[in-house]
Amino acid sequence: MYPIIKAKKLADKIYLMDVVAPRVAANCLPGQFIIAKVDKEGERIPLTICDYDEKAGTVTIVFQTVGASTERMAYLEEGDAFQDFVGPLGCASDLIDEDIEELKKKKILFVAGGVGTAPVYPQVKWLHEHGITADAIVGAKTKDLVILEKEMSAVSNLYITTDDGSYVRKGMGTDVLRDLVQNQGKQYDVCVAIGPMIMMKFVCILTKKLELPTIVSMNPIMVDGTGMCGACRLQVGDEIKFACVDGPEFDGHLVDFDQAM
Question: Strand, helix or coil at 19?
Answer without folding.
Answer: strand
